[in-house]
Amino acid sequence: MTVNNILLSGVVGSTAYGLAHEDSDVDRLGVFAAPTESLHGLHAPKESHVSTAPDRTLHEAAKWCRLALGGNPTVMELVWLPDELYEVRTPLGDELIDIRTTLLSARRVRDAYLGYATQQFRKLQNRFTTDEHGTPTRRRSAKHARHLKRLCHQGYELYTTGRLTVRVDDPESYHRFGEQVAADPSAALPLLRHYESAFDRTRSALPEQPDESAADAWLRRVRAHYYTPEAA
């Protein structure tokens, strides 16, 4: 899959978190710009490109902004990666990193991160109920549990400080938690409830609404940069 005009791209997921095993996939995420002229026609260009081998997801700039403004944890980590994990950085990509804090809002961060963590808990419950608990199932359940804990911790950090640390502290504690919950999904519930309560009783460092004007201004600079009018 060839996608042009990539603005920012890097290694995300378990590798970025420091939770990868030897056989873990390496996930990549990026944002690209559609040619501005292509946005004017009857059929809009594709907004996302997803591939495997390698595992890579690329979102068009406008879609990425919409997801980030909604607090989406998956896209948000792209602008908080350690420098060594970026594989493509352009001046417009650096501008996106520069405005990352303006994309945040208290309610959307809380709802998105806790919402994703709750989804992981439901997957754990459903998998434990419907499968035969073989080794592959246990491995998948442990992964859901690790991500549940990560989402709770990172979401709370973002909510309370306005900053996101992608690489987790003490990865081994996440692996222990994963194995514990893989054997008994209900073991994840106290952690989830703890963070729900922590969000409720803690004042956020974030504003109630994101600054959409910053994202809009950045997107207009992207559109201007990639506008090439057709010859008359």
Features:
232 residues, alpha+beta, five-stranded mixed β-sheet, Nucleotidyltransferase
Report on the architecture of this protein.
This is Nucleotidyltransferase. InterPro entries: RlaP (IPR018775). Pfam families: RlaP. It is a single chain. The chain has helices at residues 13-17, 61-69, 73-76, 91-98, 106-130, 135-161, 171-183, 189-201, 212-225; strands spanning 6-12, 27-32, 48-51, 55-60, 86-89. Helix content is 51%, strand content 12%. It contains nine helices and five strands. Helix 5 packs antiparallel against helix 6 (135-161), helix 6 crosses helix 7 and helix 6 runs parallel beside helix 8 (189-201). The model has no long low-confidence stretch (mean pLDDT 92). With 232 residues, it is an alpha+beta fold. It has a five-stranded mixed sheet.
Topology (SSEs and partners):
Layout: E1 6-12, H1 13-17, E2 27-32, E3 48-51, E4 55-60, H2 61-69, H3 73-76, E5 86-89, H4 91-98, H5 106-130, H6 135-161, H7 171-183, H8 189-201, H9 212-225
Parallel strand pairs: 2-4
Antiparallel strand pairs: 1-2, 1-5, 3-4
Residues in helices, as a percent range: 40-55%
The biggest sheet, with number of strands, parallel, antiparallel or mixed sense and barrel status, is: 5 strands, mixed
Fraction of residues in β-strands: 5-15%
Low-confidence stretches: none
Continuous helix count: 9
